[in-house]
Design brief:
Blueprint (H helix, E strand, L loop, with lengths): L9 E5 L3 E3 H7 L8 H7 L3 E3 L2 E2 L6 E3 L3 E4 L2 E7 L1
Parallel strand pairs: 1-7
Antiparallel strand pairs: 2-5, 3-4, 3-6, 6-7
Length: 78
């Protein structure tokens, strides 16, 4: 996984106006494989905008900040 550090979130551009959390985790390199999304979400390891999120199908939009283990990524429109 990329080291996104504890500083500012890394901007990750998406093609559409929305993206599902599970897809974004992989795109942002916060998980190694797409199938890992189910487990990290269920374990409560993911927060969106500072709130724990267990639904990997949650729709994210530009400006949402996703965090796992101190690494953060922000959704940006491409």
């Amino acid at each position: 996984m990329a080291d996104h550090g504890a500083g500012s979130p890394v901007g990750v551009p998406i093609r559409d106006k929305v993206i599902r959390l599970g897809q974004f985790l992989k795109l942002a390199d916060l998980i190694d494989t797409g199938s890992e999304a189910k487990w990290v979400c269920a374990a409560g390891e993911i927060s969106v905008n500072g709130v724990v999120e267990t639904r990997r199908g949650r729709q994210l939009v530009a400006g949402d900040v996703v965090t796992r283990e101190g690494r953060s990524a922000v959704v940006e429109c491409a």
